Amino acid sequence: SIQTVILDADVTNNNATLNTIADVTNLYVPVVTDNFYWFRFCVLYMAQATSTGSRWSVTTPAFNQFAVTSRYTLTATTNTLNNIIAGDVPSGVSATSLGNGTSTGNLMILEGFILPSADGNVQLRFASEIANSGITAKKGSKVDYQQLY
Fold first, then answer.
1. How far is Cα 127 from Cα 52, in angstroms, rounded to an integer?
2. pTM confidence score
3. What is the pLDDT of residues 116-127, one digit of tens each?
4. Which candidate in 24, 107, 121, 125 could, as Cys together with 28 as Cys, close a disulfide (CB 3.0–4.6 Å)?
5. How far apart are CA 69 and CA 71, in angstroms?
């Protein structure tokens, strides 16, 4: 059956060093060696300014198979699209975000499969492209996941 983890509080990354990737605390999928999993992170996020871009990825335990795609808001009509083949990829960030403050949100969806060769977590991670300009994953964001075999 599909399991769901819901983010119970906002998590902000406004590191003093630009593009410093950090965990979205408490938003992860626990995985066990040699079990095959599907997961889908769905995150509402806010940018401190429309000129502040973001970067979204995951870190994982060792794996035999791993395939992930992500997309997140760039402008009102465009998205940043990525194919992710390893933890903390992509290394770069987008250039902008849609809206700022608390009323206009951005959407990030990251979905994939993993066959881990070690126990651990598929941990959601994010960064801001501008030092001291926050990206905030909002309370109520979630991950759905299922062990397929």
1. 10
2. 0.94
3. 999 999 999 999
4. 121
5. 7
